[in-house]
Amino acid sequence: MFGRSVTLFKLFGFEVKIDFSWLILGMLISWSLAKGFFPNRFRGLSTETYWIMGVASAFGLLISIVFHELWHSLIARRFGISIRGITLFIFGGVAEMIEEPPHPRAEFFMAIAGPLSSIFLGLIFLGLGYLSPASGWPQPVTGVFIYLGILNLILAGFNLIPAFPLDGGRILRAILWGWKNNLRWATRVASQFGSTFGLVLIFLGVVDFIFGNIIGGLWLFLIGLFLRGASQTAYRHLLLRQAFEGEKVRRFMKEEPISVSSAITLQQLVDDFILKHHFEMFPVVEGDQLVGCISLNQVKEIPREQWTLKQVNEVMARCSAENTIEPDEDALEALARMNRSKSSRLMVVEEGKILGMIALKDMMKFISFKLDLEG
Last residue of a domain, which of 243, 275, 296? Predict the structure, then answer.
């Protein structure tokens, strides 16, 4: 879901990160408020003041999103659900759950906590905004408080729309799950609502764009694309989690993997292994010990005329946690590592020895058959 991100701070044990895409959101909000909303609502102020109000409001939005996601995370912790952290990105923020909620009640309370916290924060900001003139606070402070109050109420209302994976969609899933006691069915229905709502936003965005509201239309279009993709991805993720539940890497690995000696030349590697077996990465062994790995990209970085001169041990890299896994790890962890490293194979290693390889195509074949058998 995310690109590059940096950690801002830790809050109640949760790591709060910001994706670089959020900077785009912050700049858009600051610009639109400084050039449109605040000049129209609070006339007679200087351009610099409007910009200060815009930046302060963007910062207030950041705090509001963290507050919203923090309550999701705190309630999740209360029900024993592991949260990897909170990440802010261009479409808002997300509390990253490592696992699905254990029961509908946990899902319901975790989901509703976010909108309720935004309603609470919105009323606090509005109260401060309407009380500030009597307190002698400057008009720009009043304006920022009122804007943040309205924004938090809008944030709560939007999130209560029953479109998965919005909070309202999760509330819907919790209700359906409790009714039928079938998480897969409940997720499928809630995801269909989310996908349909995404299409509606895409359509409205196109209409807005055609009638001249270019920025607003583009924004609706992008949010619609995101929601549609996120709803479908969430359902696929659930199918994967349920299909691989309890399965270990050992079940899917192919024993006696093709490995190479560290003493052969790159030319021998290309002729006898890469062009013959069509793998992008090979384990390098000495005796029965794994000493490294070498990939097609590493070979390509060496000038072709040096392939007969350089040996594998001069080019290979040390193996890492991103391209190796232990045989008794969960199969889902193998999928996660493949996704992070953009690789289709992992080396299965135990106590420095390579036991086999696990391939994405074999895991996908397993889930295809399993889902087909289960209907």
Answer: 243
